[in-house]
Amino acid sequence: MLSTQFTVYFLTVLGSVVALGPAAVNLRTAGNYAILAKTGVSTVPPSVITGSVAVSPISANGLTGFSLTLDSTGQFSTSTQVVGKLFAASYSTPTPSTLTVAIADMGTAFTDATGRVNPNFTNLGSGAIGSLILTPGLYKWASAVGVGSDVTILGGATDTWIFQVSGGLSVAAGKRVILAGGALASNIVWVVSGAVSVAAGAHLEGVVLGKTSITLITGATANSRLLSQTAVALQKATVTN
Ligand SMILES: *[C@@H]1O[C@H](CO)[C@@H](O)[C@H](O)[C@H]1NC(C)=O
Question: How far is the CA of 120 from the centre of ligand 1 (A)?
């Protein structure tokens, strides 16, 4: 089964000179942030976030657990847990208007990604995708999706994936989303209408466009952007974009 998938993939690649998979989802300015959320970003320290963090329309009260240091400009703050800046709608101009645009761009990206039609794969594995090999394409599930054992995303550096998930997305403790063949996290989009949860010690790859919450439990890691229309909760987690 697995070797058949590999064979089909490589034959497809050999016969193709163009990138495989759906047109890229344009994140616009939402792509400037490692974590962007409307109602809050919390951390149970120590988390390690590489990239900027932002909340809007909630104020800086929505950034919890970061022990923020407000910059003298008032436009952003810093935290020992963030290699980058933290922004909130309550900070000084131009931060509020910049964030309003970023939040709108996040919504536009969600609408784009969730609206793509003619999936290449529908309800694959009935949502249980552990141990599968996911070649480039548009995937749609009318259910939740669970990674109960390691799953591999296989493709080249210009190939793309969109995973449309109507329910939640969960990665079980210690399980991993693995990239192979040169696949890049920035070319992978998980557009999830339910809650996203990455359990203890688990690992996720790809941009997450979440309609609701995104939670990374103790020791979870993500090579991702976490873009939530509600809140992002981190517990001693590592997020790198
Ligand atoms: C996915 O489906 C689209 C639309 O039917 C098709 O054009 C494309 O070749 C398929 N992509 C792959 C990688 O199979």
Answer: 6
CB of 120 within 6 A of ligand 1: the answer is yes
> Distance between CA 178 and CA 134 in Å, rounded?
10
Q: What's the CA-to-centroid distance between 12 and ligand 1, angstroms?
A: 11
What is the SS3 string spanning the chain? CHHHHHHHHHHHHHCCCCCCCCCCCCCHHHHHCCEEECCEEEEECCCEEECCEEECCCCHHHEECCCCEECCCCCCEECCCEECCEEECCCCCCHHHHHHHHHHHHHHHHHHHHHCCCCCEECHHHHECCCCEECCEEEEECCCEEECCCEEEECCCCCCEEEEECCCEEECCCCEEEEECCCCHHHEEEEECCCEEECCCCEEECEEEECCCEEECCCCEEECCEEECCEEEEECCEEEC
Give the residues of the chain that fall short of pLDDT 50. Answer: 1, 11, 14-15
Selection from 220, 155, 206, 143 nearest residue 20 by Cα: 155
- In angstroms and rounded to an integer, the radius of gyration of the C-alpha atoms of the chain is 18
Domain range list for the chain = 4-231
Closest ligand 1 atom to Cα of 119: 2
Pocket test for ligand 1, best of 13, 120, 140, 159 (most atoms within 8 A of CB): 120
Q: Model-level pTM? A: 0.93
Look at residue 14 in the predicted model and tell me its pLDDT: 47
